[in-house]
Design goal:
Layout lengths: L2 H11 L10 H17 L4 H16 L9 H17 L13 E7 L5 H16 L3 E6 L6 H12 L2 E3 L7 H15 L3 E6 L7 H14 L3 E7 L4 H14 L3 E5 L8 H10 L3 E5 L7 E3 L2 H8 L5 H10 L3 H12 L5 H13 L3 H6 L4 H4 L11 H8 L3 H5 L6 H11 L3 H22 L3 H13 L1
Length: 444
């Protein structure tokens, strides 16, 4: 996400690189490039101009500290303005009710049903809630069945009525069902509708009046760019929703909708969809998103994702093995599985400072580890446990069994040995040697 904007802003900041001090001329040139970058990211001209006017005003009003270059100062100003533009603080979903009722709204095809399930999964796994999903889309073929399938996959009950065609009645009965059976959150999936469709807008208004939701979330596709912002405004005028779920953020290289929805409708983005898996729903943090936009990575989100899948007992065993230099391919395979559980590989790597730019043109998907896994699975249990016994004939057999070649097998073994050495260095506190090892690997 935001790849294009990150590139354009980096070019804009280069105008000030090497400058000894800020002047009206070099600031004006930088600001002009920033405005072009925002417009290219599908930000409206009005918001882009207001943003850059504020950046210019703050830049010209600051004395440059001796320890800070003009370029660094401009990055800091843009960073602060981006956070303000996107809402500054992360906003949580309102769960104060008993049960808490969440109403999902949006256009058809925006991802409401999928994100109803993603939100239910997040509340169940990370907040310890017992959610109930409600199928109120009685118009789209197979919408109810889709929600039931998703509910089964995440272990969340779905309330539906295959006979009724009245969403208001279904929603009311679902809330009563939730109270009877101890569900503390009710998430109502509604039919997709256009803001100009008066009958459909009246229907969702009636659902709102009938169940009095504690939270109304507007689900919108980030790929629609500025149209997403316009649609959000139209729905907000009708529903006065509480927050936004922005879907398909992993597929939007521009990001204009994420930057401007808060400014246009004055409602926060609360969650972003970043992949197809049920776990691919993140809380939206404006400060972390600003860091990613400016190429700084997002280490905090990376660490949080890692901690979610962190097994202390397994980590302790692994640490002992590393200390004794006994790391093997079974351990390597286990770590690959852990990484895959964390989410989209390229998105994860983009959270590491400096890596996002380096891999922006590299095609990395969730199948990236398949070749590595095939090679390891083609080894015998003894070979995985004792990599040192891998001789020429064994490598040839492994290459044949994995559908690869000797070169690829040798490359994996070499990388594994380097990783094993670096982990050994890290466990011994040899940070300097570890960093040198990483640099050597990068040069290759």
């Amino acid at each position: 996400m935001f790849e294009n904007l990150t590139d354009r802003l980096e070019r804009a900041f280069k105008v000030l690189k090497g400058q000894g001090y800020i002047t009206e001329i070099n600031v004006a040139e930088t600001v002009k490039e920033i405005r072009k970058a925002l417009l290219d990211a599908d930000v409206s001209y009005k918001i882009a101009k207001e943003f850059t006017d504020e950046v210019k005003k703050k830049a010209m009003g600051m004395n440059v500290l001796k320890a800070v270059s003009p370029g660094q100062l401009m990055v800091k100003i843009v960073y602060d303005e981006l956070i303000d533009l996107m809402g500054r603080d992360a906003q949580d979903v309102n769960l104060k009710g008993s049960p808490s009722i969440i109403l999902m709204a949006g256009l058809q095809g925006s991802g409401k049903t999928t994100h109803t399930a993603k939100l239910a999964n997040l509340l169940k796994t990370k907040r310890g809630k017992k959610p109930l999903m409600v199928a109120c889309d009685v118009y789209r073929p197979a919408a109810i069945e889709q929600l039931q399938v998703l509910g089964e996959s995440i272990g969340v009950e779905v309330f539906c009525d295959l006979e009724s065609k009245k969403p208001v009645d279904i929603a009311k009965r679902a809330v009563a069902h939730a109270k009877t059976w101890g569900h503390d959150v009710v998430i109502i999936d509604t039919a997709g509708r256009l803001a100009i469709d008066e009958l459909m807008m009246e229907e969702i208004g009636n659902i709102k009046s009938a169940v009095n939701p504690h939270e109304i979330l507007f689900v919108v596709d980030a790929m629609t760019g500025q149209d997403a912002v316009n649609t959000a405004k139209a729905f907000n005028d009708k529903l006065n929703f509480d927050g936004v779920i922005l879907t398909k953020m992993d597929g939007d290289a521009r990001g204009g909708s994420a930057l401007t929805i808060k400014a246009v409708v004055d409602k926060p983005i609360k969650f972003i969809g970043v992949g197809e898996k049920m776990e691919a729903l993140d809380v939206f943090h404006p400060d972390r998103m600003a860091e990613r936009i400016l190429g700084m990575g997002d280490v905090r989100s990376f660490v949080e994702r890692a901690q979610e899948h962190f097994d202390e007992e397994e980590a302790a065993k692994l640490h002992k093995k590393i200390a004794k230099n006994q790391l093997n391919f079974d351990d390597f395979l286990a770590q690959i599985k852990q990484i895959k559980k964390m989410g989209n590989v390229k998105d994860l790597m983009g959270m590491i400072p400096g890596v996002g730019r380096a891999i922006k043109d590299v095609d990395i998907d969730d199948n990236s580890f398949k070749g590595v896994e095939a090679i390891i699975y083609s080894m015998t249990p003894e070979e995985r446990q004792n990599p040192d016994i891998l001789n020429g004939s064994r490598k040839k057999r492994i290459a044949h069994g994995s559908g690869t070649n000797i070169q690829e097998v040798n490359k994996l073994i070499k990388q594994f040995e380097e990783i094993r050495k670096m982990m050994k260095m890290a466990s011994g506190g040899k940070a300097k040697q570890l960093m040198q090892g990483f640099q050597n690997m990068r040069r290759r």
